[in-house]
Inverse folding.
């Protein structure tokens, strides 16, 4: 602390013990304040950190409270024009092989027209792959094959298939919906 205001960055507890070996660190030594780290918040899709606050415009500043000092994160909603720009840019790049997916403005993301099966909350639950031809989620019930070859899950046959050798030319991408390499 300097003149009652947080100064520079917090000092780690181990360093404080080295600086003040005989001091009980439950109370801060003169010129210091106990620091409480507040986790960086996850920004909403249309939010940003207010870079006018904090060290090097990070959006976080140290603020003195009754309990000591802590992180205070400053978050702003983006402007209407920034939001429109973000939406336009995102809509300009729809998912390449999922032609049935629709844009969801609330999340600024592309969503399948049918919700992902809800039984996937368990890490070991059945996984699914999207089949665009009939707008369905296909259960992946087989384990990934063993061996040295690369495989992909073919949504038409609903099985693992050896990944075809890519073309010698660069500029191709694999279409998991059709099982073919296509020009990028």
């Amino acid at each position: 602390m300097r003149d009652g205001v947080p100064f520079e960055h917090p000092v780690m507890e181990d360093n404080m013990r080295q600086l003040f070996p005989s001091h009980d660190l439950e109370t801060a030594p003169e010129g210091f304040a106990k620091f409480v780290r507040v986790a960086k918040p996850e920004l909403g899709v249309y939010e940003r950190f207010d870079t006018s606050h904090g060290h090097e415009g990070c959006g976080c500043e140290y603020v003195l409270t009754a309990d000591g000092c802590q992180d205070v994160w400053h978050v702003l909603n983006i402007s209407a024009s920034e939001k429109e720009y973000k939406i336009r840019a995102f809509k300009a790049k729809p998912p390449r092989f999922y032609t049935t997916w629709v844009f969801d403005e609330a999340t600024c993301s592309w969503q399948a027209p049918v919700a992902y099966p809800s039984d996937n909350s368990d890490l070991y639950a059945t996984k699914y792959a999207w089949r665009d031809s009939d707008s369905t989620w296909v259960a992946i019930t087989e384990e990934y094959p063993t061996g040295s070859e690369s495989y992909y899950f073919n949504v038409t046959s609903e099985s693992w298939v050896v990944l075809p050798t890519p073309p010698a030319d660069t500029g191709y991408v694999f279409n998991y919906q059709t099982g073919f390499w296509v020009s990028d």
